[in-house]
Amino acid sequence: MNAHLDRREILKLSALAGAGAVAAARAGASAVAASLPSETGAIKWDKAPCRFCGTGCHVRVGVKEGRVVAIEGDQLAEVNKGLLCVKGYHVGLALYGKDRLTRPMLRKGGKLEPISWEEAIEVVAQRIMTSPEKFAIYGSGQWTIPEGYAANKLMKAGLSNNHIEPNARLCMASAVTGFLSVYGVDEPAGAYDDLDKCDVLILWGNNMAEMHPVLFSRVIDRRARGEKVTIIDLGTRRTRSSEFADHYWEFKPNGDLAIANGIAHLLLKNGTYDKEFVERHCAFRQDKTAAALHGESMTFEDYKATLAPFTPEHVAQLSGVPAEKIQMLADLFGNRDLRITSTWCMGFNQHNRATDINRLCHSIHLLSGHFGKPGDAPTSLTGQPSACGTAREVGTMCHFLPGGRLVENAEHRADAENLWNVPAGRIKPKMGYHTVLLWEKFCTPTDKGGDISTVWVQVTNPGQSLPNLHKLFQAKKDLEDKFLIVSDVYPTATTELADLVLPSAMWVEKNGIYGNSERRTQQWFKMVNPPGEARDDAWQNIAVARKLFELGHAGMKDKEGKFLFTFKDEAGKDVPAWEWPHYHDLNVDKALFEEYRAFSRLKHKDLAPYDEYVKARGLRWPVVQQPDGSWRETRFRFAEFDDPYVKKGAGIQFYHSTTKDDRAQVWFAPYTPPAEAPDAAFPFWLCTGRVLEHWHTGTMTMRIPQLHGAVPFAYVEMHAADAEERNISNGDSVVVKTRRGELRLPVWVNGRSQPPRGNLFIPFFDERLLCNLLTLDVTCPISKEPDYKKCAAAVVKAGLAAGAGTF
Fold first, then answer.
1. Is 780 one of the annotated binding-site residues?
2. Whole-model pTM?
3. Which H or E run contains 631?
4. Is 701 labeled as ligand-binding?
5. CA 192, 194, 200: angle at the middle one, nearest 5?
6. Amino acid 40: pLDDT
7. Most Cβ neighbours (<10 Å): which of 60, 212, 668, 703?
């Protein structure tokens, strides 16, 4: 490598590395395996999905002498075909940070002191017994499916308590409400195969080159083979994805709502919408209250009239995208000889009108007929390895039950009670607190309405990831009657305020199952032991449930008086899995998964038996058994050629239609401005997000030397002209302020992304520089997901700011 390359070029190359690695993967090479000594015979290899994002890449894990010593891309895996991103190639090192948590610790006299597991389980159980209704569990899309299922069963079937949430509320809840309100069932209809077939790829505020580089490389690789794929990047700042795009169009915050309406307007005006598809398969909907999931029906003529104001010229004023570009987008959607795939991630979901923009994107695909064929799909991408499989499908949100059921639906409750074999009425009919409200209640004094007294955090780091941290997390510090339990693998911003810390096993230190962004369920086995006394999160839930059973909590018994988590071995003998020495006497993951499978059929999310996933590199649901006994996955839902639940001759059938007539809903939603906008005191827009090398709050990636060394601390990016006006140079220390707080950071001008004038960007991976001290806690009124992407901010050179901290 040229020794004179500057850091910007090196970082740019790292974003390009995925595409370049394709050739190596096809040649049978691996970036990590190629560096191993030749005597690899002593290494034992097995499969596992990557621990990081929701792409679901499979890795081959090499173990020697009880440690993970090698990682390579799994060439048998359809998702990544041997390729990994820079995080994936280093995922094994995430296990071996020097500060792993290895013993339970209880805060005594202000200091965390080691205690036994027996005492720790007793402490948790006693907190619950004191006030079961004031107890909450907060997990994440990093829970494995069995872990999330165990936590959900403990809460809803055992404690009659719906105060359980995953951090997917912060990232995927809006995709959920979008899917549900359009199709009547959650999760995308298409698959990653669409990236291999589309003629046009539209990135809706989605930096796929950095956030989902392995998927992006599938498209770039097609270009390398001479195929024509037009990439259109719609964004509020230039990113690494923009450099690959044929077109980059910058829109104003919330301008995406206007753009989608403008496309729909022109499809109708020009008569280029798919009349036959719409007449056969669609109905029309609007939400006059701006807060209803299902809204009200409207006629086609009413729909057309509401879109009339969204002319290209008006959309240009609202969005900043030139009118001719809006016309170009409409022409593309009006051309049914093309295959168009839309992808999005947090740009849509972390939005004050997030459900609306999700609905509108689906709607223009339906209106134009770009749906139900390989390459024609609207597809949301997830950020966590099991945000789909656990947070959504298992139903670990406060309003869900497993398999797409709702706690407020009496039939769904009765069905779940029957499957769980608990008495009728055990499941509480009122939904629990969503994430932002849950933490607000926890951080509010009890005498002022703060009716959550104990929170058990598992596999996530809310002390860094919640918005408006002063209000929603750090306010806990002065509340002596509030008790925070944290199960984790490393010290975090959350453990700083924890009253009890429980050390957890991680990734291949335990069995696991994840569900990725394309409905693919993926399994792996334990390969190495966790350090010290660290134990599986599923065991922790089961052990607490057993202690509650012993303390006499009636909810820990089923209708027959048996313990809620009863396991039997192959001989039919009870196995006391709550006792750690016996936890591995059977495969608890398999037992929990087989129990959970029964929930998967109501919404046609059918799962195969556990042993089928052992043999496969994942299967996309619905997975249906064939006459010969084999199990067949489904790539494209609602399309007769692939979906076994579509009636013969229907072509397309939306069999979970909210209007119960097999029709999807085409929505109108008005343009709505952001919740907070720049003014004289706070003249900048502030956006937060991720970078290629780090994942979420950096708990794992910041402990991987290669990734830490590439991007060791957070920074604020700003436009060169804005910096020059303020006499700010690259590397200078600045203070970024919002109405909620301030933060001192180094500035990066002309960095890897380029915010437009008046815009700032801060990544959120650095626990020393908590950008969520600045962000809004305003949420989408339907999904209750916060808007992290736009709030008003000011920036001044640090030397001019009295009292600013250091970075």
1. no
2. 0.94
3. strand 631-632
4. no
5. 130
6. 52
7. 212
